[in-house]
Amino acid sequence: MIKAIVYQSNTGHTFQYAKMLGDKLSLPYYALHEAKQYLKSSDEIIFMGWIFASKISGWKQARRKYRVRCCCGIGAYPKSDQNQKTLIDANHIEEPFFYLRGGIDYHKLRGMKKVLLKLVSKEIVKEKPEMSEMFQKGGNFVSVENLNDIVAYVKRHEI
Fold this sequence. Notes:
Elements: E1 2-8, H1 13-25, E2 29-31, H2 32-35, E3 44-52, E4 55-56, H3 59-65, E5 67-75, H4 81-91, E6 97-101, E7 103-104, H5 111-127, H6 132-137, E8 139-140, H7 148-157
Parallel strand pairs: 1-2, 1-3, 3-5, 5-6
Antiparallel strand pairs: 3-4, 7-8
């Protein structure tokens, strides 16, 4: 049985999803760095991490420390099958995986991540002009409706 939601957030989108999912499933939610105070290594969790350069932040650590029942990656791109496959392959995910669209908040990004995102965004916008505004100004696409699939999965499997 799932004991908690463990998350790794950078600009707050993943935290927002962890809180909403915790409320929907009546589960506590903990940042990865504080979870060890509340959970044992044998505890089952849902892991949520933000995505940068096709890597889900905190995934390897969470997978080593806990029994992850499913993984959620939170990123800026719209949801697509190709994007999900890329993330599953790049992160070696064997557990059920759910992609949730988060957003970009340039005010909260720091250091090299901010610089790299600005550089990469120019190339992305050339390939996908529909994403121009989000990469220029940022945006927040967090929505409780985006959690419907994971909530249904957890309830269906009674985990």
